[in-house]
Amino acid sequence: MDNVRELVRRFILDNFLPGEDASNLTDSTELKESGILDSMSTLKLVTFLESQYQVEFEADDLDAGNLSTVASIAALVTAKQRG
Amino acid sequence: MSSLLSPEQLRLQDAAFEFAQRLPADMIERDRSATFDRAGWQRCAEFGVLGMPIPPEYGGLGLGLSDLLAVMEGLGRGLRDQGLLFSLNAHLWTNSIPILRYGDEEQKQRYLKSLCDGSLIGANAASEPDAGSDIFSMRTRARRDGDHYVLSGTKTFVTNAPVADVFVAYATVNPALGPTGITAFIVDRDTPGLVIDRKLDKMGLRTSPMAQVVFDGCRVPVAQRLGREGRGVLIFECSMEWERGCILASCLGVMRRQLDECVAYARTRKQFGKPIGKYQSVANRIVDMKVRLETCRPLVYRIGALKDANQDATVEAALAKLHVSESFVKSCLDAVQVFGGYGYMTDLQLERDLRDSVGSTLYSGTSEIQRNIIARGLGL
Question: For chain A, which end, N or C, has fewer CB atoms within 10 Å of the first or last residue's CB respectively?
């Protein structure tokens, strides 16, 4: 779980927050409300996680509530891995 | 001018320029009547334009994007029919490329060969009357019904629609999901419920046909879904990234042709006893056209290099789209001004170039949208 969180954080920082201080992105930072993740970046993140962890997200999984923070994204990936 | 291209790419570009000059030149009348050149389309396909970025196993030539950009610049320089070039671009970037990149093997085998050889014309149905720049607020629904989806909604500004055989269309499977409900479909022209509602008349690019398309309970087999449910945004943005970066390559050719014509005219046209090019106000205008061309070309060819290396070009494509389109309009206006009253006349065909250019700051995302993309890339 911690590894998943760190990978999600790193992906978001590298791809959607160029130049941002890493300490400003915590596990509970609101990703949608703060505008860090829009629809396109969400799908890029999801595609990356699917490839990295061999899981599949359905359309309903992409509901904003499931992807609102680093912690909730990592929880969803972990739940998918457990089937 | 040529250092951005390899000797082989220069050869391809010259061949495209010579080929384009052999296509029919009856543009003034076809512009008036807004007539699409189907025979010209076929000749472009036979020349290889539509198959260049498609792998040989699907009927294409498997060349790099940089090669195709070089060819497009050559076509733009030699061909007066910018509407035909626009239709070719729409077909390539918003229909063939999404099918190549997101289609399953059966879809690729079924469509790509015919899209390459010109026998099928492709179109893209995304914009809606109330969803333009805010494209992902689209309302067209795709309701699952057994082994079909039922599409209902209206699409507008669909380039090629009156002549198209196959559409890549976007609809939401669940409006509550917002953009992540949007899903892409391949819809054949003869699918019951697909209606070409009305042809749209426009200021420029008049030989590129455009229409409104209505999906009226249009039943599309599940096998025709392009990619997975909810991944339409990814597919649409992929096609836009390619289109933004590449659609203006032919405009580079037009800018080069205009520059050559302006230089030649300014050297021979005499007023007050000397060539008008000897007047600084005229010469500077032509210098500005040259500067724009030389600053536009690297931006366009950088997209080719990035995509050929399988790299993301989101921001670079927006930069190219913004700078080239705005430069293109300015240079078209300058060309008219250099030729004075003659430039304003239909016979010289510069006024049509100007009308054709205006759309470039609007299609594939307005200049305002390109600036949004660039700002986001800067972390703003």
Answer: C
Could A59 and B229 be called an inter-chain contact, meaning their C-beta atoms sit closer than 8 Å?
A: yes
**DSSP sequence for B127-161:** -BTTBSSSGGG---EEEEETTEEEEEEEEEEEETG
A20 touches chain B (CB under 8 A): yes
Closest chain A C-alpha to B55 CA, distance in angstroms: 24
Q: Which fold has domain B123-230?
A: Butyryl-CoA Dehydrogenase, subunit A; domain 2 (2.40.110)
By the CB < 8 Å criterion, does A58 face chain B?
A: yes
Q: Residue B106, Cβ neighbours under 10 Å: how many?
A: 9
- ipTM over cut 0.90: no
CATH topology of domain A2-19+26-82: 1.10.1200
* Cβ-contact B298, B291 below 8 angstroms: no
* List of chain B residues whose C-beta atoms are within 8 Å of the C-beta of residue A34: none
Task: Give the chain A residue whose CA is nearest to the CA of B312.
Answer: A15
| Predicted confidence pLDDT, tens digits, chain B (380 residues) | 457 899 999 999 999 999 999 998 789 999 999 999 999 999 999 999 999 999 999 999 999 889 999 999 999 999 999 999 999 999 999 999 999 999 999 999 999 999 999 999 999 999 999 888 788 889 999 999 999 999 999 999 999 999 999 999 999 999 988 888 999 999 999 999 999 998 999 999 999 999 999 999 999 999 999 999 999 999 998 888 888 878 889 999 999 999 999 999 999 999 999 999 999 999 999 999 999 999 999 999 999 999 889 888 889 999 999 999 999 999 999 999 999 999 999 999 999 999 999 999 999 889 999 999 999 888 78
Residue B233: list chain A partners with CB under 8 A. Answer: 39-40, 43
Distance from the Cα of residue B287 to its chain's centroid = 27
Chain B touched by A21 (CB under 8 Å): no
Choose, from B73, B128, B229, B243, the residue flagged as catalytic. Answer: B243
Copy the structure tokens of residue B2: 């040529």
CA distance B69 to A71: 44
Is residue B261 annotated as part of the catalytic site, yes or no?
no
